[in-house]
Amino acid sequence: RVHLMESGGGSVQAGGSLRLSCAASIKDASGIQYAMAWFRQPPGKEREGVAAIGSDGLTDYGESVKGRFTISQDNAKNILYLQMNSLEPEDTAMYYCAANPLRMPAFQALLVMASSPVTFWGQGTQVTVSS
């Protein structure tokens, strides 16, 4: 029903940029507008919300990435993007694309998607930022 595949991760020096992509295949005849988000999980830490697009199309960001990261989606190609600028070593993590069929605004998506039993996840893509 839902298949997500991330790409675009890699190694970059601090201050550099990367763009992550998530190819989303969502077969749902209900017409529900899924909330879409990027999460990350640094080594030894819990998964945290990075950026989200809510069911209403509006966006929200985690505090640590505001002003540096931009989430967007190409609905025609079913691709979710995360443009990451001014990368810092603290951004090093496995980055995951996520989709949830529950109707929710972006700020709520960042808070609840990680623990929601109906969230679909990609396999992740590694981002490593060196100082």
Features:
mainly beta; seven-stranded mixed β-sheet; four-stranded antiparallel β-sheet; 48% strand
**Order of SSEs:** EEEEEEEEEHEE
Straight-line distance between termini: 41 Å
Work out the helicity level.
under 10%
Number of helices: 1
Major beta-sheet overview: 7 strands, mixed
Short account of what is shown:
This protein is mainly beta. It contains one helix and eleven strands, in the order E-E-E-E-E-E-E-E-E-H-E-E. Strands 2, 4, 5, 6, 9, 10 and 11 form a seven-stranded mixed β-sheet that branches. The chain has a four-stranded antiparallel β-sheet with strand order 1-3-8-7, with no helix packed on it.
Explain what this protein looks like in three dimensions.
By secondary structure, this protein is mainly beta. Helix content is 5%, strand content 48%. The protein has 1 helix and 11 strands; from the N terminus they run βββββββββαββ. The strands form 2 sheets. Strands 2, 4, 5, 6, 9, 10 and 11 form a 7-stranded mixed β-sheet that branches. It has a 4-stranded antiparallel β-sheet with strand order 1-3-8-7, with no helix packed on it. Strand 5 and strand 6 form a beta hairpin.
